[in-house]
Amino acid sequence: MFCVKCGKEGDTFRGRCMDCFLEGRELLVLPPFVDLDRCTGCDEFLLSKKWRTLNDEEAACEAAVNSSGAIADADVIAVGAESERQDDRNIRVHVEADLDIDGHEVPVEAETVVRLKNTVCHRCSRQLGNYYEAVLQLRASHRGLGEQVKDDMLRKVLDKVEAASTNNRQMFVSKVQEMHGGLDFYLSSMSLSRGIARELAAEYGAEVKESSSLVGMKEGEETYRLTHLVRLPHYKLEDIVEHQGRPYQLMALSKRGGKLLSLENFQVISVRTSDLRSLKVLGGSDDIADAVVVACYDDEVQVLHPRDYSTVSLRIPAGLRTGDSVKVFDHEGVLLLVP
User: Fold this and answer.
1) C-alpha angle 73/78/80, rounded to 5°?
2) Is there a contact between 186 and 132 (Cβ–Cβ < 8 Å)?
3) Closest CA to 327 of 213, 232, 210, 240
4) Domain extents for the chain?
5) Cα separation of 184 and 154, whole Å?
6) Is 56 strand, coil or helix?
7) Cβ-count burial of 249 within 10 angstroms (0-12 exposed, 13-18 middle, 19+ buried)?
8) Strand, helix or coil at 124?
9) What would the pLDDT profile of 15-66 be if each residue is shown by its tens digit?
10) Contact 37/47 with Cβ under 8 angstroms?
11) Parallel, antiparallel, or unpaired: how do β-strands 182-187 and 207-218 relate?
12) Most CB within 10 Å of its CB: which of 185, 192, 268, 323?
């Protein structure tokens, strides 16, 4: 075989030797400018029809590579890119690639300028417009939530929304309001609100009620918003409570009930949801104090009463390791150890 252009004998590709075939041919096609959308709300970039979190240079390189293309006769073996910032809106990107053409590895390169275009993604547009499909209302029975509980609930709900948004970026909170001693979360998704309400109910033994309201018409169909009212019980985990006239610490909650730790014999008992409703709260975490340990024996410990510093002997559960102090609760003048 010989090259029809230069006459050199040897392997040919489409009638030409590889040198003649490649001569003057643009092997890597790249437009002079590539526009890249950047959301001014979340700073994410639109790449391959998906919004992603990258720095400017990483996004520009990926946009340039995505916009490049090799000739039909070539297979891309490897591709890379380097960027050089020109100004706030323009980044020059140099793309290098290795192509396989009829078994020959050919290095190629090309350049383009990636232009950053400010826009607003669909999610941020909705957030800025306070879009919501459901309201998650957190309330407490017979009292306000309290500042500590509000802080805990705020963090917990926001964490759940953030976790959901990692798989679906359309999940977000439009706003949070303090209302009637509780919190209202305006959420972008009915399913998100319903899911969080159920999780909180399971974690705290809360009561959940769902209601809907007509908000308008869309494409000839009625549209609704949901409200999920989560009413937290009058007790919370680790509260000191009274059950059947005896002091316990609330250790666990579930859909079916909870578990109580006796502060008299340190046995754990299970109770039903109906029993939980009749619990009397004796104190919370703020009412549990530290007592200095004076002496420790196999089944009891001597401590200084945190109020009058008198010496008090307390029974301790088997296997409990005491340090310089232990947790105690004063119940009607009787000091109780809280393991």
Assistant:
1) 120
2) yes
3) 240
4) 18-118, 123-232, 240-337
5) 10
6) helix
7) buried
8) helix
9) 666 667 667 677 788 999 999 999 998 999 999 999 999 999 999 999 999 9
10) no
11) unpaired
12) 185
